[in-house]
Task: inverse folding
């Protein structure tokens, strides 16, 4: 087989060969180019659609990207015009299979996002020719970049802040769904004729919960071309340094891009204007910031300058934490509130307060003028007029506290703003309580709403995506996809420690009864025991992959693989071994010390404490998750036939009860309530959606 040269790999002309050749992928990796092997689709193929239902095809001007073209088309079935996206003609035939998978992935990912400010998907499929497509609403509007260009004055461009705030809220929604856009820019934001806003072009979007990595769809990091969005890259003017370096996608990419779009809106030009893509990338890698916005547009309000600076920080840790926080800051600015991310001087606080209470200040000023005028004509009436002015001042202060109480009530519903709402409610109520006056009702209600809305969110700091949690008294323990065991203080959320794991995929941590150790095993042949206080750990192995591991009530470790093994908690040495009829696929420990193991041949193995074990063939397809009820008398198992069954531990030979069945979903986990009267079932739908079901036992 002839292999391409390094020049061919860099030029992107051998994508299909490189994606299927291990040696060429290693050569590409040495050149700083990452290509992933083709991944199998885990969803049904798009259905075939009769292309005769769509007529009057008209290409939309400027509606094309690196691999797609959009047309204005009439849907004969519903008598309406829609926008249809297809792969561009003329793409390399050798890359077509990869590009088709990427296109279908874009269609499915876009269809998952159900938000008014994100372009929807009417239909997706393949025509008789095999050409994939998806249909979207035909949006009549102009790109945000064109709107910015039309508005030459800052005050005119500030009118677009509401649209950008809507975009930030839409991106925050996408992040909550685990999706990063990676190419936010003015040209991918459409402004409608009636002020509506839509985020488009999710072709580079990444599901960060996808275990396949950034290149699982075969995307190729091609050399940048000015003005075009390249596969897996983005647009240089709006990308952060970590995206330019090729780091794994995360929501911070989009936060920076939103800040860069705000930079463009305020200054009228994009960051790093007049520089080509290669120059911009070098500047980002060298951590050279773009020209300060205060130099380009000196009249920009300092609050907006701060938002841009915080969103576009080259240091990810100093950047605004999320798109939701950026949207909240923009909302605060537009409603005249103080920014949470800005430190104000005393003079700025005074000016801000005066702007928000112009009416009250004018009333006080008029009252003061009246007092002076009347003093000239009637000294006797000075005292009375002074009292009137004082009353006006008190009224203005009460109005301020009333407004603070209203803001506290409205902010209480948002867990992120709840702590600020409590502080604002206290500030609104404190002056009247200190003076013995009757508090303003709105201030009282604002503090009550903030205190009764629930606890404020406490963020947990971690590097990777947390996959499993366990609790140990006042500590919260998790394992993440960065292969680390992370420990937090359960009350404050402060991270206490993070210990690296040697497991390829650490899963399901179990805490010892005394809370001093954690056992971790993944879906492989290695397990680990950690000492929580020191991080000291040791590994143990099994001949086949572990189905699970846990602590017995007496502190010993029990594991299930090809046999059930009881181990010493300090040395992990084997104490007892119980053979199984087949490989285990789940393990559960009851509060009584009973151990239950299910096997792939449908056997149920039970080991009561202090008694002989028993193995019962069940003749049903037992699944990978089991759980005891509170008393340890009933065992629940999620079967591979998508049926949850309840087994009597006291009479295991009795036929199990079927308590739930859903053949349209994959049953992932089962848990019992502390009271023992309910069972929670977690499942995945065929379209990838996750949901849960509560069953009364």
Result:
């Amino acid at each position: 087989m002839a292999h391409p040269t390094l020049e061919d790999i860099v030029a992107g002309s051998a994508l299909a060969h490189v994606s299927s050749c291990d040696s060429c992928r290693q050569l590409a990796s040495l050149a700083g180019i990452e290509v992933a092997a083709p991944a199998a689709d885990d969803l049904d193929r798009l259905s075939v659609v009769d292309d005769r239902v769509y007529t009057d095809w008209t290409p939309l001007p400027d509606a094309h990207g690196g691999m797609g073209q959009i047309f204005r088309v009439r849907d004969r079935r519903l008598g309406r015009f829609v926008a249809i996206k297809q792969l561009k003609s003329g793409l390399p035939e050798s890359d077509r299979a990869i590009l088709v998978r990427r296109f279908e992935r874009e269609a499915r990912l876009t269809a998952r996002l159900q938000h008014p400010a994100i372009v929807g998907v009417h239909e997706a499929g393949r025509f008789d020719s095999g050409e994939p497509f998806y249909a979207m609403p035909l949006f009549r509007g102009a790109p945000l970049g064109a709107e910015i260009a039309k508005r030459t004055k800052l005050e005119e461009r500030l009118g677009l802040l509401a649209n950008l705030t809507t975009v930030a809220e839409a991106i925050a929604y996408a992040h909550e769904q685990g999706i990063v856009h990676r190419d936010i820019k003015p040209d991918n934001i459409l402004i409608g004729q009636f002020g509506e806003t839509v985020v488009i072009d999710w072709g580079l979007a990444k599901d960060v919960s996808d275990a396949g990595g950034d290149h699982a769809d075969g995307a190729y990091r091609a050399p940048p071309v000015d003005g075009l969005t390249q596969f897996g890259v983005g647009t240089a003017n709006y990308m952060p340094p970590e995206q330019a370096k090729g780091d794994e996608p995360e929501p911070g990419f989009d936060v920076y891009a939103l800040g860069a779009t705000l930079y463009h809106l305020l200054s009228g030009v994009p960051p790093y204007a007049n520089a080509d893509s290669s120059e911009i990338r070098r500047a980002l890698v060298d951590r050279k910031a773009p020209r300060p916005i205060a130099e380009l547009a000196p009249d920009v309000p300092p609050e907006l300058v701060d938002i841009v600076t915080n969103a576009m920080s080259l240091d990810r840790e100093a950047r605004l934490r999320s798109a939701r926080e950026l949207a909240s800051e923009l909302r605060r600015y537009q409603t005249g509130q103080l920014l949470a991310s800005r430190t104000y001087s005393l003079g700025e606080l005074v000016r801000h307060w005066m702007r928000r209470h112009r009416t009250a200040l004018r009333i006080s000023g008029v009252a003061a003028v009246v007092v002076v005028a009347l003093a000239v004509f009637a000294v006797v009436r000075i005292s009375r007029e002074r009292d009137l002015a004082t009353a006006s001042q008190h009224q203005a202060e009460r109005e301020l506290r009333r407004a603070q109480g209203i803001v506290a009530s409205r902010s209480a519903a948002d867990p992120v703003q709840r702590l600020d709402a409590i502080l604002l409610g206290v500030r609104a109520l404190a002056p009247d309580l200190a003076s013995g006056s009757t508090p303003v009702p709105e201030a009282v209600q604002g503090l009550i709403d903030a205190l009764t809305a629930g606890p404020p969110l406490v963020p947990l700091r971690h590097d990777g995506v947390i996959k499993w949690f366990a609790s140990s008294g006042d500590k919260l323990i998790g394992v993440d996809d960065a292969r680390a065991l992370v420990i937090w203080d359960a009350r404050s959320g402060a991270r206490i420690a993070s210990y690296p794991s040697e497991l390829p995929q650490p899963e399901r941590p179990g805490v010892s009864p005394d809370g001093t150790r954690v056992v971790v095993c993944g879906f492989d042949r290695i397990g680990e025991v950690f000492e929580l206080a020191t991080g000291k750990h040791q590994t143990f192995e099994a001949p086949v992959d572990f189905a699970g591991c846990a602590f017995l009530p007496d502190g010993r470790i029990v594991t299930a693989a090809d046999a059930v093994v009881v181990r010493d908690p300090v040395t992990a040495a084997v104490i007892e071994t119980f053979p199984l009829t087949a490989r285990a696929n789940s393990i559960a420990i009851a509060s009584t010390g009973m151990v239950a193991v299910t096997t792939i041949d449908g056997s149920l193995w039970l080991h009561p404490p202090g008694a002989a074990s028993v193995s019962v063939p069940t003749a049903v397809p037992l699944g990978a998750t089991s759980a005891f009820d509170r008393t340890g008398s009933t065992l629940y198992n999620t079967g591979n036939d998508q049926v949850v069954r309840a087994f009597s531990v006291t009479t295991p030979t009795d036929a199990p009860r079927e308590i739930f069945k859903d053949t349209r979903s994959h049953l992932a986990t089962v848990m019992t309530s502390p009271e023992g009267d309910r069972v929670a079932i977690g499942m995945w739908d065929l379209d990838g959606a996750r949901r849960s079901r509560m069953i009364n036992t």
